[in-house]
Amino acid sequence: MAELSAGARNYRALMWGMVLLATVPFVVFVAGVRGVVPRQMGIAALPLGFACLVAAVWLGWRGHRQALADRERVGRTTMIMAIAAQLGRQDDAALERIAAKSGPAAEAATWILAGRAEKRARAG
Questions:
Q1: Cα(122)–Cα(85) distance, rounded to whole angstroms?
Q2: Nearest to residue 26, comparing CAs of 37, 13, 12, 15?
Q3: For 81-98, how does the pLDDT look when each residue is reduced to its tens digit (9 = 90+)?
Q4: How far apart are CA 97 and CA 101, in angstroms?
Q5: In a 3-state reduction of DSSP, which class is residue 45?
Q6: Contact 87, 101 (CB under 8 A)
Q7: Which of 10, 76, 86, 108 is 20 to 30 A off residue 46, Cα-Cα?
Q8: Half-sphere exposure at residue 5, Cβ-oriented, CA atoms within 13 angstroms
Q9: What is d(CA 77, CA 101) in angstroms, rounded to the nearest whole number?
Q10: Which of 38-42, 45-49, 74-78 has the lowest mean pLDDT?
Q11: Domain boundaries, the chain
Q12: What is the pTM of this model?
């Protein structure tokens, strides 16, 4: 399994914290059913427990979306680097034609042209 980003890890920790927090109202509910605490208190705790579980599901869903977005970002960067390695052999005119279009190849061509311009600026 891939390493989670800091944002996805935070969502995951918050999700488990909400699950843990949801156990308190459910324990109060069971205690109310058994007569350990007043029945009204147990009944009032039930919606709070479900609200905590809904919040945990929502946080888990957000963390999952964050992890997918991070994975996609890493994959896109890797793909652009692979394209840049192939386009590095092209001359500047060909790279400018590619950079004029859109997509990952254009982004890779733009990276290469910027790197070459920087090298020329340092050398000159």
A1: 22
A2: 37
A3: 888 888 888 888 888 888
A4: 7
A5: helix
A6: no
A7: 10
A8: 15
A9: 18
A10: 74-78
A11: 1-72, 88-124
A12: 0.68
